[in-house]
Write a structure and sequence with these properties.
2 helices; 173 residues; 2 domains; six-stranded mixed β-sheet; mainly beta; six-stranded antiparallel β-barrel; 15 strands; PRC_barrel-like_sf; rRNA processing; SH3 type barrels; Elongation Factor Tu (Ef-tu), domain 3; single chain
Length: 173
């Protein structure tokens, strides 16, 4: 039903990459994209590593990662200290989505209501299956999660602002 981006959120930030090992001896870092919009890196001039805003000097694509030169990262040791950390941008810099597309981090946390007005639970995860995504719902009535295919015939409405998803799902007897 919806195309979902794999970016995740931390309050007002979204993760767009994970920093790998240093590249070379002059402080360049490898960044592995964690976004459905890897072209965004070409336009990036700043980002956050932990809570520190960093200025990006240059970006180069290389195989499955990006080589990034960051102001102040002048040697291999400085770059190595960032290994394993997440590269984040402010949520307002999220790539725009088309109508009917949602970020995964906007879907997780929605309350799920069936057509009788009964709350089934809260979405806790989105599984990528290839043909369609599957919403994992923490049930209000069972320890077992509910798996809901992300299909138009199942999901009738998504209201991010009110944190609500309406679905066609039979009430359990």
């Amino acid at each position: 039903m919806e195309k979902l981006s794999k970016c995740v959120t931390d309050k007002n930030f979204i993760v767009v990459g994970k920093i790998g090992r240093p590249h070379g001896i002059r402080g360049a870092i490898r960044v592995y994209p964690l976004t459905d919009f890897p072209e965004r890196f070409l336009k990036m001039r700043s980002a956050y590593i932990d809570d520190t805003l960093v200025e990006i000097n240059t970006v180069q694509y290389h195989n499955d990662f990006i080589i990034m030169d960051i102001k102040g990262f002048d040697d291999r040791e400085k770059a190595a200290a960032a290994t394993g950390k997440l590269l984040r941008v402010e949520r307002g810099e999220a790539a725009p989505l088309a109508e009917g597309e949602y970020y995964t981090f906007d879907i997780v946390g929605l309350k799920v209501w069936n057509e009788e007005g009964i709350v089934l639970g809260t979405i806790i995860n989105v599984l990528k299956t290839g043909s369609n995504d599957v919403y994992v719902i923490k049930s209000t009535e069972s320890a077992e999660p509910i798996l809901l295919p992300a299909l138009k015939k199942m999901v009738t409405k998504i209201d991010i602002e009110h944190k609500r998803m309406d679905v066609i799902w039979p009430e359990k007897d």
